[in-house]
Design goal:
Elements lengths: L5 E5 L5 H13 L4 E5 L6 H10 L7 E7 L4 H7 L5 E6 L7 H8 L8 E2 L5 H13 L3 H28 L1 H9 L3
Parallel strand pairs: 1-2, 1-3, 3-4, 4-5
Helix pairs in contact: 1-5, 2-3, 5-6, 6-7
């Protein structure tokens, strides 16, 4: 069985449309992961048990996403020595700002690295970058990934320069 390096935890199955972005980027970078649903409020004992045992199971980075009160990343961070990356999930009532504040405003001594609202893709990349400090093969995949991003931007700019801004807008941003 392959060692799980990243654990992706979401507070509710309704977070899955956002959290799947973590899984997708980790798959692209060939980083092993698991996903689970656990709630800091509805199943606190399960969440505490999970957080306390993650390191001994070999997990090295935890990504936790939640909306609203969004205590999941902080609760997990309070109970594990592992780095925790929090993803504030968008909420219809306050646009995810409630989630963001709940995750980013951690007390001294309990850090949670926090990405943008719905920033699950960046959370996956950050987890891979953290792991890249220990695993050279993951670091190389991250380097290649970033080179590919630069290549794509440069190709877009070549086309932009060729077409000019008006034609580029017409082709790629106007509703047909």
């Amino acid at each position: 069985m392959e060692k799980i390096l990243v654990s992706i935890v979401m507070g509710s199955d309704s977070d899955l449309p956002v959290m799947k972005e973590c899984a997708q980027v980790l798959e692209e970078l060939e980083v092993s992961f698991e996903m689970l649903i656990s709630s800091a409020h509805r199943v606190p004992d399960k969440t505490a048990d999970y957080a306390k045992k993650a390191a001994e199971r070999g997990v090295e980075v935890i990504i936790a996403g939640a909306g609203g009160a969004a205590h999941l990343p902080g609760v997990i961070a309070a109970m594990t020595p592992l780095p925790v990356i929090g993803i504030p999930v968008y909420t219809s009532s306050l646009g995810g700002v409630d989630s963001l504040y709940s995750i980013v405003q951690m007390p001294a001594g309990i850090p949670v690295a926090t990405v943008a609202i719905n920033g699950a893709r960046n959370a996956g990349i950050l987890a891979a970058q953290i792991l890249g400090n220990k695993y050279p093969e993951i670091r190389e995949k991250v380097v290649t990934f970033k080179k590919d991003l630069a290549f794509k931007v440069n190709k877009k700019d070549e086309l932009f320069q060729e077409l000019g801004h008006k034609e580029y807008l017409r082709r790629f941003f106007s509703k047909h």
